[in-house]
Design goal:
The complex is a heterodimer. Chain A is α/β, with parallel strands linked by helices. Chain A has 2 domains: 181 residues, Periplasmic binding protein-like II (D-Maltodextrin-Binding Protein, domain 2); 240 residues, Periplasmic binding protein-like II (D-Maltodextrin-Binding Protein, domain 2). Helix content of chain A is 40%, strand content 13%. Chain A has 18 helices and 18 strands. In chain A, strand 1 and strand 2 form a beta hairpin. Chain A is globular, with a radius of gyration of 26 Å. Chain B is mostly helical. Chain B folds into 2 domains: 41 residues, no CATH class; 203 residues, MetI-like (MetI-like fold, Orthogonal Bundle), CATH 1.10.3720.10. In chain B, 65% of the residues lie in helices and 3% in strands. Chain B contains 14 helices and 4 strands. In chain B, the strands form 2 sheets. Chain B has a two-stranded antiparallel sheet with strand order 1-2. In chain B, strands 3-4 form a two-stranded antiparallel ribbon. In chain B, a hairpin with an 8-residue loop joins strand 3 and strand 4. Chain B is flat. Chain B starts with a strand and ends in a 5-residue tail after the last helix. The chains are: A alpha/beta, B mainly alpha. Chains A and B meet through helix 1, helix 3, helix 4 and helix 17 of A and helix 2 and helix 13 of B.
């Protein structure tokens, strides 16, 4: 009898535990503490996140909580390190307080940060599990794939009536984001930015080359050959360096060619819209064939491009370029303008290398085709449409979160520079960077009320960088006079804006959004067979057409019939 | 209404009790079985309902999944990249399995033959270590060693040894279709051989010393003892290991993912990496297609398990499932 009671009790306890675990799992999934972004709006379901109250018609919606999903571009909400968590813990309350003050009632904001390098994957996973935030960051290409699904809220009207409209200086960005019917699904607070070709000034000097004389591809290529065959690093050994390094032969996202603009020149190896409005496959053009021949010559024949470029990621390419060991390094590196120009200089200096970096103006072949370096489509903030037919909740999110982002004052400062007292301050302050290094030691002194950036928490020898909005790229500048005095960044941003043109818009087609991987695979195989394995360009193109030609034609048909 | 009857092993015909009564009589056992039954249902069978998505268009967004019949399977079977991946999965997995098992057997026998216990234990520890390194770390190490740049370690050694001349280019090991698979096998052997020896060493330690003593009396050499005592004793374990691992050949992903690149897709792309690219490198994937490919992979895996079970019955007299 005792045995029976024991077995029954055990069985009941185990069953209960199992059921509670199962129920608990479901509960956790919907309450959203995991990394799936749960506890959020149910798109198209009419329900919104728990922290919202509707008191009736449009315009009366009182938003008390916003769930936000971001990639790695909002530095002040990252939480991987102790320093990042300290910044986050200061930033979010300050932002909540500032927005609450602006909209007249309390609001809380839940930030969730997706893996930056796999953000698209992260977003897809979240959507499939029906976990929707209120507002989130998307690349322009991603926004275009989702804009016809009913998932994103059309913010055209809200944007047109936004408080910041009278301060906007760059109106063209929003226009270029609109679909063919004039609907706007994404808010771009900054322009996209792009890559500049950087050259180590010391290497130019050692080889007797004047950067200003590099005007054409031939000039550029001769410089690469000199860097590869000569002794640009001055270690007394010829031929132990490379001319160029890149993170891949082609980018992993639009505008595809920006890491190797001098080689790709007028080619655009993706589906693209011509000036006549007709979509075509830019990979199957003579311009691409010529670019592949140039890359083959440089990579496979003359080896002026570091062969590691084929498999290198951006981190590996960067670190090899600025590494303390310059044997095997390269003289030229195309990378992002603005903040990254400053980072390149800083890291060369950290490794006790000559930190002068020359910014190469677009060579003639680029100027004559595109007009300059390509400015990628700007990342955007989108609002998830709950699909209930009532826009009051979405309008409230726009008013609280996006409209205030460019208020020109307190909130925009937080988005630009991070939390006050942590990354920046207006209080009287004195500090020293690199106090133990007489060559790099720098003293800073600020009076009460003077805006200034503070030492970086993670590296007190450097000054904290921007948070999310780049003051040089923002469409509507700060009006409070708070300006970060990072000369390098400003120089680079000005250089880029003086030498850039907008990249072509990404295609929007159901088949493309679903099956572009097949085209990219075929394209990457073709590029590899020519550039890495020294194969024939025409043969590679034939293989490409045989593999995905029909699929490309189907996509072009969709795109051109939709216009 | 006539009652069902059954015959006991003793040949007595008895009336079978109704099912409900039998369950009630054994309610304690059924109650004890209930947690396991629920666990299996919730953890193993409930997720299987996701198989239906292979017959649906299932994309991220507010629209509900819609039935599309066999569209995904038609797309899959008409895609040459899929068949390349399928072929590569089988080749890479099976060759890797046989090479790794062979290497593990050889190393196990050598370790077993070692006289010094200290050396044996030290060597065992050293060869076990790579197993505990993640594939990302292993790939980083070998990418540096095999780098085609002037700082690449192996290329530098080949140049120092005179195998590569002054006019020869560095070898791009991981982008060469002819070299990629051998390198992949070598890296796998390096990483997993040590771990694979555990089960063989356990078997070897169970061989009766009397067999070796008898062989000594018969005047057998060390090699003859290995051939006629050790290997036959290991054969059953070797077959078991091969059969069990053969059932997992379709699961190849991580080791390939960290080492492959577009230049060698034709010899390296496997179903796992193919599904990954089709799903996670597009802006708005159709998870229905990924599920269809995954379902196909599972079916092939299932068939392999049944074949293995059949082979096991033939060889060992008993199945594995």
């Amino acid at each position: 009898m005792k045995r029976r009671i024991l077995s029954v009790t055990t069985a009941v306890a185990l069953t209960a535990a199992l059921l509670m675990t199962a129920c608990g799992g479901g509960s956790t999934g919907s309450s959203g503490s995991g990394d799936s972004g749960a506890g959020t709006t149910t798109a198209a379901g009419g329900a919104s996140s728990g922290g919202s109250e509707s008191s009736g018609g449009s315009g009366e919606y009182q938003l008390t909580n916003i769930k936000v999903i971001v990639d790695g571009t909002v530095n002040s909400v990252k939480q991987e390190t102790e320093f990042q968590r300290t910044t986050r813990d200061a930033f979010i309350p300050q932002l909540e307080a500032a927005i609450s003050e602006r909209i007249g009632h309390d609001i809380t904001i839940d930030f969730e940060v997706g893996d930056h390098s796999k953000y698209s994957e992260y977003v897809g996973r979240m959507f499939v599990s029906e976990q929707y935030p209120d507002v989130m960051i998307m690349s322009a290409a991603m926004m275009r794939q989702y804009q016809d699904t009913g998932l994103l809220w059309d913010m055209s009207e809200a944007y047109a009536n936004a408080e910041f409209q009278n301060r906007i200086q760059l109106t063209g960005i929003a226009e270029s984001m609109k679909d063919s019917q004039g609907r706007l699904y994404g808010f771009a607070p900054t322009y996209g930015n792009g890559c500049i070709t950087y050259i180590k000034q010391a290497w130019l000097d050692n080889c007797g080359i004047n950067g200003d004389d590099i005007k054409t591809y031939d000039d550029f290529y001769n410089m690469l050959k000199t860097f590869t065959q000569g002794d640009p690093d001055g270690n007394g050994v010829d031929g132990d360096t490379y001319g160029f390094i890149s993170a891949g032969l082609i980018g992993t996202e639009a505008p595809w060619t920006n890491y190797m603009a001098e080689f790709w020149q007028d080619a655009y190896p993706n589906i693209v819209q011509g000036e006549d409005g007709v979509w075509y496959d830019g990979f199957q053009t003579d311009a691409t064939k010529a670019a592949l021949e140039r890359l083959k010559q440089a990579y496979y024949v003359d080896k002026v491009i570091d062969p590691d470029s084929y498999t290198a990621g951006t981190k590996q390419a960067r670190e090899k370029w600025w590494g303390a060991e310059q044997v095997g390094s390269a003289g030229v590196f195309s990378y992002w303008a603005g903040n990254w120009y400053n980072n390149l200089i800083t890291n060369l200096g950290k490794n006790d290398l000559d930190d002068r970096v020359y910014e190469l103006a677009p060579i003639e072949e680029i100027k004559n085709s595109w007009g300059g370096y390509l400015n990628r489509e700007a990342p955007v903030w989108v609002i998830i449409d709950d699909g209930d037919g009532d826009d009051s909740r979405e309008q409230a999110i726009f008013d609280a979160f996006l409209d205030t982002m460019l208020d020109g004052d307190k909130i925009q400062t937080l988005w630009t520079y991070g939390p006050e007292g942590v990354t920046w301050s207006t209080e009287a302050e004195e500090f020293v960077t690199n106090p133990d290094d007489p060559d790099k030691r720098k003293e800073y002194s600020y009076a009460e009320g003077e805006f200034h950036m503070r030492p970086d928490l993670a590296d007190p020898n450097t000054i904290a960088g921007k948070n999310h909005l780049d003051p040089a790229l923002v469409v509507s500048p700060l009006t409070n006079g708070y300006v970060s005095s990072n000369d390098n960044q400003d120089i680079s941003n000005k250089f880029f804006t003086d030498n850039c043109v907008d990249a072509p818009a990404s295609p929007t087609s159901p088949t493309y959004s679903e099956r572009s991987a097949e085209i990219m695979d075929a394209r990457d195989v073709a590029i590899s067979s020519v550039v890495v394995q020294g194969g024939d360009v025409d043969a590679a193109m034939d293989t490409y057409k045989a593999t995905v030609g029909t699929l490309v034609d189907q996509i072009l048909e969709e795109l051109n019939s939709a216009e | 209404m006539s009652k069902k009857k059954k015959v006991t092993p003793e040949g007595i015909e008895v009336r079978e009790k109704p099912l409900g009564l039998r369950i009630w009589n054994n309610r304690g056992h059924y109650l004890m079985f209930l947690p396991v039954f629920l666990f299996v249902l919730i953890i193993c069978y409930w997720p299987m309902l996701g198989i239906r998505y292979s017959f649906m268009e299932y994309k991220a967004g507010p629209a509900a999944p819609t039935w599309t019949g066999l569209t995904h399977f038609q797309r899959m079977f008409s895609n040459t990249a899929f068949w390349d991946a399928f072929r590569n999965t089988l080749i890479l997995s099976i060759v890797k399995l046989f090479l790794s098992t062979f290497a593990s057997v050889v190393v196990s026998i050598f370790l077993n033959e070692m006289g010094s216990l200290f050396m044996k234990k030290s060597l065992q520890t050293i060869i076990y270590l790579p197993h505990f390194m993640s594939w990302a770390v292993v790939a980083s190490i070998f990418t540096l060693i095999l780098s085609p740049s002037s700082t690449g370690m192996l290329n530098g050694m080949l140049r120092d040894w005179g195998i590569l001349g002054a006019n020869d280019s560095n070898i791009h090991f991981l982008a060469d279709e002819g070299l990629w698979r051998p390198i992949f096998y070598l890296i796998n052997i390096w990483k997993e051989t040590g771990w694979g020896t555990i089960i063989f060493l356990a078997t070897l330690s169970g061989i009766s010393p009397e067999l070796y003593e008898a062989a000594d009396i018969d005047g057998a050499t060390r090699m003859q003892k290995m051939m006629y005592v050790t290997l036959p004793a290991l054969s059953n374990t070797i077959i078991t290991v091969l059969i069990l691992n053969l059932a997992k050949v379709m699961n190849l992903f991580e080791s390939v993912f960290v080492l492959y690149n577009p230049a060698v897709y034709s010899v390296s792309d496997v179903i796992g990496t193919y599904i990954y690219r089709q799903t996670f490198t597009v802006a708005r994937p159709d998870y229905g297609y990924s599920t269809a490919v995954g379902l196909f992979r599972s079916l092939v895996g299932c068939i392999l398990v049944l074949i293995c079970n059949h082979a096991s019955k033939k060889v060992r007299g008993r199945g594995i499932v």
